[in-house]
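Next comes this protein:
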Amino acid sequence: MQGYGLVVEGDFEFDPSTGAITKYLGSDENVVVPETISGVMVKSIDDYTFIGNRSMKSIEIPDSVNSIGMGAFRNCYELENVSLPSELTEISDYLFYECRKLESITIPGGVIKIGVASFYDCNSLKSIDLPDVITKIDAFAFKGCKELLFIEIPSGINEISMGTFEYCESLETVTIPDTITEIGSNVFNGCISLNRVEIPYGVEIINSSTFNGCSNLNTIVIPESVVQIKSNAFFGCENLKDLKLPSRLSHIYSYSFANCENLNELVIPNGVISVGRGAFTGCSKLSHVELPSGLIEIESNAFSSCSALEEITIPFNVNRIESSTFRSCKSLKDVTFFRRCT
C-alpha cells in the first residue's frame, strides 16, 4: 500500500517531502536511479530499499544522492557492479551485507566512515580502495570477504574494530598505519593466508583472538608499547618461528601462543608476572625457554605438550605453578627451582 504523501513513478516509491526513495518495485538487471522523481531532486535512499532483490546485477546512483540507508542492498545476491555517488560521506551499516557477487567497488573520496558489517560476507570482493579521509571502520566491516587479497588502512584511523577482517581467507598483506593505537579482538581471526604483520608503536594491547588461526603467519613485529597479549591472540599460528616479546609486557594470557608448532625459542621479558593457562601448549618445537626473574605465577598447561623442551629454570619469585604445567613434555629432563613453589 502506498504510504501517506508517497508517490510511485516507474519502479520507485518516493517521498517528495524528504527526497528519499523508500522502495524499489522493479525487477530489472541494470537499475538506474533517476536524479529527479516527480520534479523533486532525489537526495537519499532509505533503509532496506533494495533488500533481498534477486534480479539486480548493477545499479547507478546519481550524484544528487548524499545518503544511502542501512542495509539498502542487503542480501542482493546477484549484485555485481555499483556506481556510488560522489557526495556520499558514509557507507552505512549492513549496506552490502551478503552481496556475494560483488567483486570490486570504488568508495567515493568524501566517505569518512565504513559502517558495521557493511561488506560482511561479500565473498567475491577482491579489491577495495579506501580514501585517505576515512576516520572509522566499524566492527565486522569486511568479515568473510574470502577473496580480498590486500588492504591498506587509511592513516586517519586510530582503531581497527572487532572482527573487521575476520575470515578474510585470501588476505596476504595488510598495511597498518602508525596512527593505529588499538586493534580489537578477532580482527584477523581466520586469515589463513596472512604472512606478515607489523603492529605500529602505540598499540598497548593485542586483544583476544586477534591473529587466531593465522596459520601462514611467519613474521610478526610486536612494538615495545605492547603491555598485554590477551587470550588466544596467536592461537594456531603454526608457521610462526621467531618471536620477540616487548620489554614492557606484563601479562601473557591463556592460550595466547597455543599450537604455534614451529616456535623454537622463547625469551619472556622481565616485566611479565604471569603466564596464563595453556599459553604455549602444543608448541611442539619449542626447545629453549627463558623465564623472567619477576615471574610470580605459571598457570595450568602453560607449557604442556612442548615435546622438544629439554630443560627449564623456575625463577625465585615464582610462588605458584598450577597443575599440568609441563604435561606431555616428553623431552624434559632438567627442571631447576630456586625456591619452593606450591
Summary: Residues 260-342 form a domain with the Leucine-rich repeat, LRR (right-handed beta-alpha superhelix) fold (CATH 3.80.10.10).
